[in-house]
Amino acid sequence: MTVSHYLSNWHLRQKHCNSKHALEYHIRDLIKKYKTNFIPIGNLKLGHQCERALMFKVICDQTKVPTTLCKQGDSYFNEISVFGNNTDLRKGPLVQKRFIVDLMEQVGDLIPQCSKEAESYLRKYRTEF
């Protein structure tokens, strides 16, 4: 997955230093370099859930993949809707199922919205800023 690969330094660095500090330092360095608070998203080399969700949304918009950038409490995430039949592929009403896209652990996995797994995922990656 492009977003995870591009911002993968996050996982390498978080084992060796304070992850919040590393991300803040990286963003501060970019603000100083560009002399503005508006940082081109393509220049981020580190990123947590918020940065990954934003980059994923931009890529989806450019490739015409419908997705939603969401914020729930201190958690940022992307949500997609999948349409399908409830039971058999040829019978039954068409239903919409909503999923959170995992951009942190099992990148690309779809986590059913409103599930215990989704609650755990959002709680684990709350933004600490």
Automatic annotation (TrEMBL):
Residues 20-111 form the EDR1/CTR1/ARMC3-like peptidase-like domain. The keyword Repeat applies. Transmembrane segments: none annotated. Keywords: Repeat. This is EDR1/CTR1/ARMC3-like peptidase-like domain-containing protein.
